[in-house]
Specification:
Chain lengths: 146, 352, 374
């Protein structure tokens, strides 16, 4: 067996975060967390999972384009990242750090702050030629409206 | 009418990036006008380097589920038709179950029959729905298909996905599957040996004995079974390896061109293989009025066809407004050159 | 004399590409040098600081193998890790001395030059949340880039204003024999350097390097090395950046404002892994009003001639970024500044200094007050 860069159990148990952006909500005070927590600052441990993908609206608040990337992302460079605000159906909002995709150069995100984004399911990286293909949630600028 | 099963929601996904056949012709020294005349394809979609058959399938399935207005908890099966799996062994369908947050007791699998598998899976799902073994299920056709650079397929093989949520709940159904008719034969018109990166084909042999013979047989068989004629259909959608083939098969079957054109997608996005004819169906569903009858005939090399008669219900109009249309996705595009095309499709030789 | 913990010796290895030296070689050299300077005292404890030694040397229990290499066969040793806040190890050493151990060595070491750039980026990404950030390729530079952009937007600065930090650091380092980067840079050099994560450019990033630094703390004041440790504290803010209301604040360093008011330090050595962190530290400590640090830098504050001098060493920007050793470099530089060693004697006599070391991007800060006594 060759060496794996991505350990299958670790990928498997995190799939709900990668695929569905799961965070947690405190059932006592309503605070939401991403990354999730098992205990709230209010002291309660009564937490429920919520998928941020249920948010009908995502807005880009700040972005950067990383040109010097970690080794497994060399063929994905440059990497775009945004501070993205997710507006949940209940009116709450939470900011997350999220990868951006579908852009050819950093110029495309100039003046992009404040624009609406849409989540899209993408390959995050491929572990060598034989390891797992790792998927996750990225965001891109929303062009059309329903 | 037979209301055993129908479409409750549809979703499409076309990558944002496109390459023009003119640009491909430039690189390979072909005459762009001749190429255009040969295929009638202006542009084809290109998967970004972070896209593959899995990602497109998930994105299409999510849209379909939204249109279906069915809780993920109520999905009992997920089937995927593809011939470009990123994993030789490891299903796409199970990844969809995780991405959509489906239950554990869901049946899921991938199937391959060149470009036809997704439509075969619609028939499978229909059977399970009719037998009341499934209440609602998702069928996806997704391909980031291979075409050897410089070869015919380089001008057409593209990327895209389409998904349908099928249901037996008549309140959810927006298009009833009235009936279907299948045919197949051992016809070696196009294949890809295990381990080979690109398929090969018989060029002209993919036409008469393959595409035309099977599509005509399936379409005629279905119409005969239902006692319907071309004038009974409002739309006719055929598998689209290029734009010439569906237009020609329509005329052979006696469908006027204005019933075929609304379901043509290949001219703008290329041949999306398992998504091809079904994307055409989605494009028609995006605009069809209630009570429209649609003929859909898929084709897969090797070879076989499935013909469907689909009739829209009163629910169709509302469903159209629940997600963006295929037309919008087609128009949301960024053109790239051949060097980016090679990079995006990962055709440049690298170490990792 | 209220102090109970004293600095007996410091030793630093100029950071750089020490391809021929292992982590044990570098750490061993500075430890032996410091021990010799301290009069070859018997060490009662060795506390190691290294953030990435498992990744660079594939070595667990590095502290033990290091001690064996130095024939410190029966000396108890451990490694302390709090991200790349190396002074966390010094904090432990401080408490060991306070608890009765006579001489405790703190040695920081890192081997980063062995990695290629992209492999190093992968290593550095370990400082971010592995499941929610690093999985997608986020590195600390991305977090600093958000802070830089938001700071510029909020206070109406252009990139040139941020680059002033780097210009200043290079001015200071030009004469510091311990600096890794000793070339004076013009604003134009910085503006034309490559973009790493916009708006951050190469010269906004402390250059990763190999390095080691050692401090020996003792219960006994040294007659010729008259530096005492007045105060050591750690402040943490264990909150992901995305959940913070204000990314133009350093929640950890802000707590150092009380120390500034109480101890009135006039010399500062602060962690500036990125230009923005140096700038925000000036504001967090109250040395500059909110949104004013770049302006004050431009006006010539915080350097030789000012009543409060910051990073006369050139900061990590010029000393080099050596992971868990970085904080010990800052500590050692402040000691040399307080002792008036060349070239820092130009700053005149200063009695109290503050070192601020940071773990990750504002997740933890170690603050140490040093005092020169007569
Ligand atoms: Zn709470």
């Amino acid at each position: 067996m060759p060496e794996l860069g991505v350990l299958p159990p670790r990928y498997w148990r995190n799939v709900r975060y990668y695929y569905r952006l799961e965070g947690t909500r405190c059932k006592t005070c309503g605070r939401i967390y991403y990354p999730p927590r098992i205990r709230c600052v209010c002291g309660s441990s009564d937490m429920e999972n919520i998928s941020l993908l249920l948010s009908p609206k995502f807005v880009l608040e700040c972005h950067t384009t990383l040109h010097s990337v970690p080794v497994e992302f060399e063929k994905f460079k440059p990497l775009g990242f945004g501070l993205v605000r997710a507006y949940l159906p209940d009116g709450q909002s939470i900011r997350i750090i999220a990868p951006l995709t579908d852009f050819l150069s950093r110029d495309e995100y100039e003046d992009a702050s404040g624009r609406e984004l849409e989540p899209t399911f993408r390959v995050v990286m491929r572990d060598r030629t034989y390891g797992l293909v790792c998927y996750g949630t990225k965001f891109r600028i929303r062009h059309s409206r329903v | 009418m037979n209301m055993l099963a129908g479409i409750a929601g549809w979703g499409t996904y076309i990558p944002r990036f496109r390459i023009s056949t003119r640009e491909i012709a430039r690189v390979w020294g072909d005459d762009p006008l001749r190429i255009r005349d040969l295929y009638l394809i202006e542009e084809k979609s290109v998967e970004f380097y972070d896209e593959d058959a899995v990602t497109m399938a998930v994105n299409a399935a999510r849209t379909a589920l939204r249109r279906a207005e069915i809780d993920p908890e109520h999905i009992d099966a997920v089937f995927v038709g593809t011939e470009s799996k990123p994993y030789a062994v490891k299903p796409i369908a199970s990844i969809i179950t995780a991405a959509l947050g489906l239950r554990l007791d869901v049946q899921s699998f991938d199937a391959e029959f060149a470009c036809k598998a997704a439509s075969d899976l619609i028939i499978c799902m229909y059977g399970l729905l009719a037998a009341r073994r499934v209440r609602a299920g998702i069928v996806v056709g997704s391909d980031a298909s291979q075409g050897e650079p410089g070869e015919h397929l380089d001008y057409s093989a593209s990327a895209g996905a389409v998904a349908f949520v099928l249901s037996s709940d008549k309140d959810k159904i927006c298009a009833v599957i009235e009936d279907f008719y299948s045919c197949s034969s051992d016809t070696p018109d196009f294949w890809r040996r295990d381990g080979c990166p690109y398929p090969v084909h018989g060029e002209g042999f993919t036409g008469e004995p393959a595409y035309f013979r099977h599509i005509v047989e399936a379409a005629r068989g279905l119409m005969q079974k239902l006692g319907l004629k071309p004038q009974d259909f409002d739309y006719a959608v055929f598998h689209q390896p290029n734009t010439r083939f569906p237009l020609r098969v329509a005329s052979v079957l006696g469908f006027p061109v204005d019933k075929v054109r609304p379901g043509i997608v290949v001219n703008a996005v290329g041949n999306t293989y398992n998504a091809s004819a079904l994307l055409g169906l989605a494009k028609v569903l995006d605009v069809a009025k209630p009570g429209s009858r649609i003929l859909v005939v898929t084709y897969g090399s090797g070879a076989g066809s499935n013909a469907f008669s689909i009739v829209t219900t009163d629910n169709i109009t509302r469903k159209q407004s629940l997600a963006e249309s295929l037309e919008q996705q087609i128009n949301d595009k960024v053109l790239i050159d051949y060097s980016l095309y090679l990079r995006f499709r990962r055709l440049i030789r690298v170490l990792q | 004399m209220s102090q109970r913990v004293f600095v007996k010796a410091v030793a630093v290895k100029q950071a750089g590409r020490h391809y021929s030296k292992s982590a044990a070689d570098l750490a061993g050299e500075v430890l032996l040098e410091a021990a010799m300077k301290a009069g070859n005292v018997d060490l009662d404890y060795v506390v190691v600081s290294s953030t990435f030694v498992e990744l660079s040397e594939r070595q667990a229990a590095f502290c033990s193998y290091l001690c064996e290499y130095l024939s410190l066969e029966d000396v108890p040793c451990l490694r302390v890790e709090a991200g790349d806040a190396g002074l966390a190890a010094l904090g432990v050493a401080y408490r060991l001395v306070d608890a009765g151990f006579r001489n405790v060595a703190v040695v920081g070491v890192e081997k980063l030059a062995d990695f290629t750039t992209t492999m190093l980026n992968k290593v550095l990404s370990c400082l971010c949340n592995s499941t929610f950030e690093s999985y997608y390729g986020v590195v600390p530079t991305v977090q600093a880039a958000f802070m830089t952009r938001l700071y510029m937007e909020r206070f109406g600065y252009r990139y040139d204003d941020i680059a002033m930090w780097s210009v200043r650091m290079h001015e200071h380092a030009a004469e510091n024999p311990y600096a890794f980067m000793r070339r004076k840079l013009t604003l134009q050099d910085i503006l034309s350097s490559e973009v790493v994560a916009e708006p951050i450019r190469l010269f906004d990033v402390a250059p990763p390097a190999d390095g080691a630094a050692c401090v020996i703390l003792s219960r006994d004041p040294s007659p010729d090395f008259r530096i005492g440790v007045d105060h050591v504290s750690q402040v943490s803010h264990n909150v992901s950046l995305n959940l913070r209301d204000d990314l133009t604040r350093l929640y950890t360093v802000e707590k150092g404002r009380d120390l500034v008011e109480h101890y009135k330090p006039t010399l500062f050595e602060v962690s500036d892994k990125y230009s923005i962190l140096g700038i925000l530290t000036l504001e967090a400590l109250g040395l500059a009003p909110r949104g004013q640090a770049p302006k004050l830098l431009r006006d010539g504050c915080f350097t030789y001639g000012d009543k409060r001098c910051v990073n006369l060493s050139g900061g990590l920007k010029c000393l080099g970024y050596t992971g868990g050793a970085s904080g010990l470099y800052l500590f050692a530089m402040l000691v040399l500044e307080l002792l008036g060693e060349r070239p820092f004697d130009r700053a005149g006599a200063h009695d109290v200094g503050l070192v601020v070391d940071m773990g990750c991007v504002d997740r933890t800060a170690l603050m140490v007050v040093l005092r020169r006594f007569s």
